[in-house]
Specification:
heterodimer, A: about 110 residues, mainly beta, 4-stranded antiparallel sheet, globular, B: about 120 residues
């Protein structure tokens, strides 16, 4: 499709498990962002890629969170030893580097029991 | 660090009426962009309107317009002729332009829930 695609749409896991969330950006978009959104709140920045490298990972809350974008396209957000506080919607967005305008996917809702 | 503040957690308006959503921001930068995004219950964030800080003219997009007051660091959204489909959460957002194609992260406000009543 033409938009940002995120999988899975919903993920339910148990505390302590490992989770991967995938983002497929719009073709040709060099910048890719991950945000986390708790219920009723604004999205909170996690990490931003320019190409394959993380340009800013200052929003990752701790070392249980890690993201990669090995070929400069698809990105995976990885969460180790999940905790109940990790439950949220994880949003991915991409942009052309010269616009600053982000295009968002529909998000992956993570529930940690 | 940049901050974005939306002081109205909830707003409501009658269909066909006009409503204004408030947003203020704090930054020491001079070159930046401001956005209003809409997030309906489907979760997907949709861009409503964007404003470049170097432009004095307020942006408009059909029924949506902004009142950008750079000195006051204020960026409000006016929705005219409100429609039922405008019901959503609205986020004000800020992004810094470091020059050319170099951008920082998009920083969001807390959001305002807008309900349009028939």
């Amino acid at each position: 499709g033409a938009g940002v695609s995120q999988t899975p749409s919903n993920k339910v896991t148990e505390k302590g498990k490992y989770v991967e969330l995938r983002c497929d950006p719009i073709s040709g978009h060099t910048a890719l962002y991950w945000y986390r959104q708790s219920l009723g709140q604004g999205p909170e920045f996690l990490i931003y890629f320019q190409g394959t490298g993380a340009a800013d990972d200052s929003g990752l809350p701790n070392d249980r969170f890690f993201a990669v974008r090995p070929e400069g396209s698809v990105s995976t957000l990885k969460i180790q030893r999940t905790e109940r506080g990790d439950s949220a919607v994880y949003l991915c967005a991409s942009s052309l580097e010269n616009t600053g305008e982000l295009f968002f996917g529909e998000g992956s809702r993570l529930t940690v029991l | 660090a940049q901050t974005v503040t939306q002081s109205q957690p909830e707003m409501s308006v009658q269909e066909a009426e006009t409503v204004t959503l408030s947003c203020t921001y704090d930054t020491s930068e001079n070159n930046y962009y401001l956005f209003w995004y809409k997030q309906p219950p489907s979760r997907q964030m949709i861009l409503v309107i964007r404003q470049e800080a170097y432009k004095q003219q307020n942006a408009t997009e059909n029924r949506f317009s902004v009142n950008f007051q750079k000195a006051a660091k204020s960026f409000s959204l006016k929705i005219s002729d409100s429609q039922l489909g405008d019901t959503a959460m609205y986020f004000c957002a800020f992004i810094f332009n470091a020059g050319g194609t170099s951008y920082g992260k998009l920083t969001f406000g807390q959001g305002t829930i807008l309900t349009v009543h028939p």
